[in-house]
Amino acid sequence: MTIKVALVDDQVLFRAGIAMVVRSQPDLELVGEAGDGADAIDLVRRARPDVVLMDVRMPRVDGVAATRRIRVNATEHSPRVLVLTTFDLDESAADAIDAGASGFILKDTQPELLLAAIRAVADGSQVVAAGATRSLFDRFKTRTAAAPGPEYDALTAREREILLRAATGLSNAEIASVETLSEATVKTHVSRILAKLQLRDRVQLVVYAYEHGLL
């Protein structure tokens, strides 16, 4: 299945380079470009991309605000946002995660890693720039932890175990190995956990675990 990609960045030359990389792949289709967060909203409505590559720092409407507007009232078919940033500890990137982004990568990431990140986000996974994961989620950990609500009580004992393992960054395959389950079963459990907790993806799952003192 072809993954439709939209690109939002105020630097024309940077967009041209990323567009070339995306167009080189048979399973990716570049469906549009925008140079500002405000234009990104219209682009998403028109082109209906699966993944939006979003620069976090732009004039007028920045990537955080644009991400929030794209992801508000998001459904299963809403586009996922992968934020592009210059610094791996950029506070704005963390703000974008709060706003609904599925992760962020550095602008100088190698092309093959960018392509892998696009595919991972389209598949529902989270992507965080290498080396930034701990610093990013330490930001959420510093908040006063709130006790989990009734949504957590709805989880089974097995789902709680898988929630904690996923929150520590284990992949479905790694969880399957530890829990002695099939990868398909783990994927089903993760989907049920996200549904019960009303979370959109694994990034929010990690944030949920930190904010509620589960880690």
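(ticket continues) Second input and output from the same batch:
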Amino acid sequence: MKTFVSNISQKEFPINEKFVGGTIRKSIFDIIIKDYPSFTKKSFLALSELNIYRQKYLSNYLIKEVGELSSLENDVLETIANNEMITTKSTAEDSADYSVGQRLADRVAAFGGSWKFIIIFGLFIAIWITSNIVFLLNKGFDPYPFILLNLILSCLAALQAPVIMMSQNRQEEKDRERSQQDYMINLKAELEIRTLHEKIDHLIIHQQQELLTIQQVQVEMLEDIMKQLNLKSK
């Protein structure tokens, strides 16, 4: 297998990882020069070494745009370096981490905010009032003005309100996590587009160099043919 020696680390790498300094984007090339002033546009480095400086370029770009990097930005850079995906966790996947009280609060909040609860509780109140006024002639266990019913309703509201608030607070936490993950996905897409531009620039420059080489070979072949024709004509 053919190899080459990197002008940065002085180590051998496969020839298919060879990059010429002249094909590297100027912003990344400037970062390399800061560490290795002797590196020129005719020098060579490996793809793995170039990826390190691409990461430095992305880090510098983020620091310039947003200031000090947070844990979110560092996580995004790590996913780019490791070629990992940023995946959003669904509520079903996260539910396994919830405690019994949290799952119960979610169920109570979901049931308390449904038409099923309104209809059932409306029927309960109607039956309670009808049984005391009509069937028991307002002499039953809770005659008008239904003090016991008011007490039950007050206790239910007092218990239901904090349970619903607990569920809402955790829902806000989940929404915050989703917004953070959306931010990370958008940031990663922007950084990868920047890296993609650099790779496309490298391919264009590389193709142009190949075309120039082919043209030079063709010119040399034409010159040889003209020389041979001139010799035959003489």
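Agent notes: Confidence is low (pLDDT under 50) at residues 88-93. The radius of gyration is 36 Å. Closing as not reproducible unless the customer responds.
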